[in-house]
Design brief:
globular, 674 residues, 8-stranded mixed beta sheet, alpha/beta, 4 domains, 27% helix, N-terminal domain of TfIIb, Dimethylsulfoxide Reductase, domain 2, Rossmann fold
């Protein structure tokens, strides 16, 4: 299949961006005024695409990828292609909402909403101190101005309670920081110099579609692509080889491959000079036979041999998927992959490495100092808010997040919100979380954003500028905090416009290299502070200056069985869904995909129950014989109120490193409907 075929829309929906589509509203008696305006996507996605919006008479009528952007290269993902459904949805919030004494959210003026918030925050701070206020900020927007504006406000008001850990990437980032001193990646162009590329748990076709042309060029240049994943996904079609291992078997397969590396003498000749703990890793790898490790991973011994040989025949890059780190042993998995690359010499050279994340914040500075009164664990949000004392959490402000849908144990999160004195949600629509708020403040969408952006999937830096103004009663997060600061008498809070904030937030080191705000406004710029070849010279920002290899393994390599609940729940991104943002309403009930043999006798298309030890969802069962018999696949990001959220039946628990969420360790079963 060609790479372009993977970009094509995969359903028959009418395109809302068409001038004659359902959202068009123009006077056909006169010639419309039309122009192209450029911006960057600020949603939680590694690609940070450059968008060209066609604006006709003040309304966006079409979206396209910017051909001039070196990564976007003229195409957008399905989700962004369909964003006009959200932009012009009748459900879009266009005025503040305040909950009345009868419990109903009603429309209110900005003055009423902000005065209500200011009075409540002032009283809570006076009676219990600022730590009784919890500011929760997530990745609904990756804009640096929104992040800085919210952090600075709550530092000046408080400091208040903030989250710790990271529901998405906490374990993986912590693992790479322990091994290499930093979690970062080299230039995308380096992939074209690789002989082998492992897509280890990474479905680029859905989660990083702009990697596809890069991988296609690498493959055309002779690189071999290997997909290693429990799920049969669209990325398999891009690869020469597919290894469909057991869920949570990644650590076992990595250790089996390490054992082969040591047995066959594939260790880089200089590894001892730039690695600490080489002998200990050898002991760990040899603590089981290759066959025993492979049995845990449910693959043949030949797979470990092949991977070891490909690592030896480098340069080899391992592209690490974020899902693996969302297991209880997520940190150990990523550390094992780091060890594989380091020991075989696949670090510090073009075409090699372990790519998990790009340090998008490196080029920017924030006016906030990162000060807080206390922290609460993000994956344990519901439990920790409900249990907090000295003082209890009395108020919660939610920026760029929908924790009821996106965090495990949705019921506990909802209960935590329902029992607070003040919950403020800033959003563009009435999310699962906003439904539990006392005040909902409408904010800008990605087409109205005025932001500074880096990416966690490449090195490009840029700015987002509004292609259309927001509705008259909608404010940006920055404007909301500025107005509330004025209400609270925080005279030191900057009242400058977004452009002034952006200019101040560019690091002096960046500006000294000619990357000014004016330069970014002319177009995206490759971050000059980023290393094209990461760890060149094999010098690492660790205490020892070397790779500090893992020194322990979890019991049973994390592979455990539960005969009552035989399926691993895998809630993954789909072409139509990303986090809790949907291009269109998800199906009701939620659809779960399983191998026919794992369907408990439920026929394709029939209704059933999907049960875990903590809850039940009503689902429609879909059969897929290409999947393993021990997985149940549910689209990520379904709404809790619709009974489509995987987190409604997912236990809140932590990963081994980084306080991430062990989201992929939930075991489930299918039960025929009564």
């Amino acid at each position: 299949m060609s790479s372009q075929a993977l970009f094509a829309p995969d359903d028959g929906d009418a395109d809302p961006a068409r001038a004659d589509g359902p959202h068009a509203s123009i006077d056909r008696a006169r010639a419309p005024v039309e122009e192209l305006r450029r911006t960057l996507c600020n949603r939680d996605c590694p690609d940070a695409c450059a968008i060209v919006a066609t604006v006709r008479d003040g309304r966006v009528v079409a979206l396209a990828g910017d051909r001039e952007h070196p990564v976007t290269q003229g195409f957008l993902c399905h989700r962004t292609n369909q964003f006009l459904r959200t932009q012009y949805s009748p459900d879009r919030l266009d005025t503040p909402l305040v909950r009345d004494d009868g419990g109903t959210l009603r429309k209110a003026s900005w003055d009423e909403a902000l005065s209500f918030i200011a009075d409540k925050l002032t009283r809570i701070k006076r009676e219990s101190g600022p730590s009784a206020v919890f500011h929760y900020r997530s990745g609904g927007t990756l804009g640096m101005v929104t992040a800085a504006a919210s952090e600075l406000f709550f530092e000046q008001f408080g400091p208040v309670t903030v989250k710790r850990g990271d529901i998405c990437s906490g374990a993986g980032e912590a693992a790479q920081e322990a091994d290499f001193g930093v979690s970062d990646s080299g230039a995308l162009s380096g992939l074209e110099k690789a002989r082998n590329i492992f897509l280890w748990g990474k479905n680029v076709a859905t989660s990083s579609p702009h990697l596809i042309p890069v991988l296609a060029r690498a493959r055309a240049g002779g690189a071999n692509l290997v997909c290693i994943d429990p799920l049969a996904n669209r990325s398999v079609k891009l690869c020469d080889r597919f290894v469909q291992l057991r869920p949570a078997g990644d650590l076992a397969l990595a250790m089996a491959t390490l054992a082969v590396v040591f047995e066959r003498g594939f260790v880089d000749a200089d590894a001892a000079s730039y690695c600490v703990g080489l002998d200990r890793v050898r002991q760990l790898a040899m603590s089981r036979t290759v066959s025993a490790w492979c049995a845990l991973a449910d693959v043949s011994d030949a797979v470990a041999v092949e991977l070891a040989e490909r690592l030896h025949d480098g340069p080899t890059t391992i592209l690490v998927g974020w899902g693996m780190a969302r297991r209880a042993i997520g940190g150990a998995i990523v550390r094992a992959l780091d060890a594989l690359a380091a020991i075989t010499g696949n670090v510090g050279r073009a075409g090699a490495g372990v790519s998990y994340y790009y340090r998008r914040r490196r080029a920017f500075v924030s006016p906030a100092r990162g000060v807080s009164a206390r922290t609460l664990s993000e994956p344990l949000f519901g439990q920790e808010v409900l249990a907090a004392t000295s003082p209890p959490v009395r108020a919660i402000w939610i920026t760029a997040g929908n924790p009821v849908a996106m965090l495990p144990d949705s019921a506990a999160v909802a209960r935590a919100l329902k029992t607070r004195e003040l919950v403020v949600v800033v959003d563009s629509w009435l999310s699962d979380t906003a439904e539990h708020a006392h005040v909902v403040l409408p904010t800008t969408t990605l087409l109205e954003a005025d932001e500074l952006l880096g990416a966690y999937g490449h090195h490009q830096l840029g700015v987002a500028r509004p292609v259309v103004p927001p509705p008259s009663e909608v404010k940006s997060d920055l404007e909301i905090f500025q107005a509330l600061a004025d209400k609270l008498g925080l005279g030191s809070y900057p009242q400058d416009d977004a452009r002034a904030w952006k200019a101040r937030m560019l690091s002096p080191e960046l500006v000294s290299r000619g990357v000014t705000l004016a330069a970014l406004e002319r177009g995206v710029v490759n971050n000059p502070l980023a290393e094209k070849t990461l760890f060149s010279g094999r010098v690492f920002p660790t205490p020892s200056g070397k790779v500090e290899l893992m020194s322990a393994l979890p019991e049973d390599a994390g592979v455990r069985y539960d005969p009552e609940f035989p399926l691993f729940l895998m809630s993954v991104s789909s072409p139509r869904s990303q986090s809790s943002q949907w291009a269109k309403a998800p199906p009701r009930p939620a659809e779960v995909t399983v191998h026919p043999d794992a369907a408990a006798g439920v026929k394709d298309g029939e209704i059933a129950r999907l049960e875990s030890r903590m809850g039940t969802l009503t689902v429609r069962v879909r059969h897929d014989a290409s999947q393993r018999r021990d997985v149940a696949i549910l689209p990520k990001g379904g709404h809790y109120r619709d009974g489509a959220a995987a987190n409604a039946i997912t236990t809140a628990r932590l990963t081994d490193l980084g306080e991430g969420g062990a989201l992929y360790d939930e075991r489930v079963r299918i039960v025929p409907a009564a």
